[in-house]
Amino acid sequence: MRSVTGRLMLLDTASLYFRAYFGVPDSVRAPDGSPVNAVRGLLDFIDRLVKDHHPDDLVACMDADWRPAWRVELIPSYKAHRVAEERPSGPDEEEVPDTLSPQVPVIEAVLDAVGIARVGVPAYEADDVIGTFTARARGPVDIVTGDRDLYQLVDDARGVRVLYPLKGVGTLQITDEAVLREKYGVGGSGYADLALLRGDPSDGLPGVPGVGEKTAAKLLAEFGDLAGILAAVGDPRAGLTPSQQRRLTEAASYLAVAPKVVRVADDVPLPEVDTALPRTPRDPEAVRELAARWGLGGSLERLLATLAR
Fold first, then answer.
1. Per-residue pLDDT of the chain in tens (309 residues, 90 and over written 9)
2. Distance separating alpha carbons of residues 265 and 61, to the nearest angstrom
3. CB neighbours of 133 closer than 8 A, spacing ≥ 6?
4. Whether 264 contacts 149, CB under 8 Å
5. Do the beta carbons of residue 30 and residue 159 sit within 8 Å?
6. Which is nearest to 17 in space by CA: 108, 119, 94, 121?
7. Do the strands 57-61 and 8-12 form a parallel or antiparallel pair, or are they unpaired?
8. How far, in Å, CA of 217 to CA of 223, rounded?
9. Is the entire prediction scored with pTM above 0.85?
10. What is the distance between the alpha carbons of residues 177 and 155, in angstroms, rounded to a whole number?
C-alpha cells in the first residue's frame, strides 16, 4: 500500500449505511420496487463528505467479521444480543433489517465500480481496519462514524479526528481532544479505558458494576489510566473508597481481558489497495449498469460529478 501523506478519510461503512437506511424513506426504490434507500443515502453521504472535507484518500472500511471469535472468547457477551443466527464456521449472522441486507451487496458493487477503496479483513471489524489505517497514516485522518468507540483514536498531535454525524452528514460533530475532554473528561488515549470501565450495553460489555461514566472519568483523572487504577486497588494509601476497592476487585477477571476487546487493533494485515480518491470511475460500464438496474439516478450522478472536480 502506498504511503498516505495527504488527508485520509476512513468511513465506518456499516455505521453510515445503517444511518442512511433509517434516515432515508424506504419509498426510495429501484425500478423493480426494491428498496435502495441505504444505497442512495450512503452515496449522498459520501458526496457531502468529499465536498465539505476534501480528502485526498478515501477508504470504505467494512466489517468482514462484525463479532470476531477472539473477542467473543474473551467476553462471551460481546454483541451477543445482536446475533440472528450462530454459525459453526465463519461469522455469526447479525440481526439486520430484512430490507437492508439485500442492499449491502449493491453498495459494495457501486463502491467497487466507482473506484472507492473498500477494505474488510477476515476476523476483524471495520473498527480494526480503521485503527490500522490510522496507525499507518503519515498525514491527517478524518474518521467518519456514528460509533463512539472510535473516539479512542482521536489524537490532536497527529491530526486524527472523528467526524460524528448528529443529523445525516450535513451536521457533524468534529471530535477532537477538546471535545472529548469537555464531554467525557478524558482525551483520545483515555477513552478506551473510560469505555471499558463504564461498560456499553449496545456492545454487550458489562463494565464495572457501580462505576458509571463520571466515576470512571474521575478515577482516570486521579490515577492516569487503567493500569494506575488497578495498582491503586492493592495500595491502601491510594485513596480508593472501600466500595470502589470492592467493585474493582470483583471485576478483576473482566478488567484483565476487556482492554483487548475494547481497544481497536492497529496491526491488521491490510491488503494492497489504492486509497487515492478516484476522479473517474474505475469501471464506467458497471457504473451505468448499476445506475440503471437500481435507479440510483441523481445520487450517483452527484457523487461522480464531485469526484471529477
1. 556 778 999 999 999 999 999 999 999 999 999 999 999 999 999 999 999 999 999 999 999 999 999 999 999 999 999 998 888 777 888 889 999 999 999 999 999 999 999 999 999 999 999 999 999 999 999 999 999 999 999 999 999 999 999 876 678 999 999 999 999 999 999 999 999 999 999 999 999 999 999 999 999 999 999 999 999 998 888 889 999 999 999 999 999 999 999 999 999 999 999 999 999 999 999 999 999 999 998 999 999 999 998
2. 14
3. 4, 8, 10, 59, 61, 119, 141, 270, 275
4. yes
5. no
6. 108
7. parallel
8. 10
9. yes
10. 7
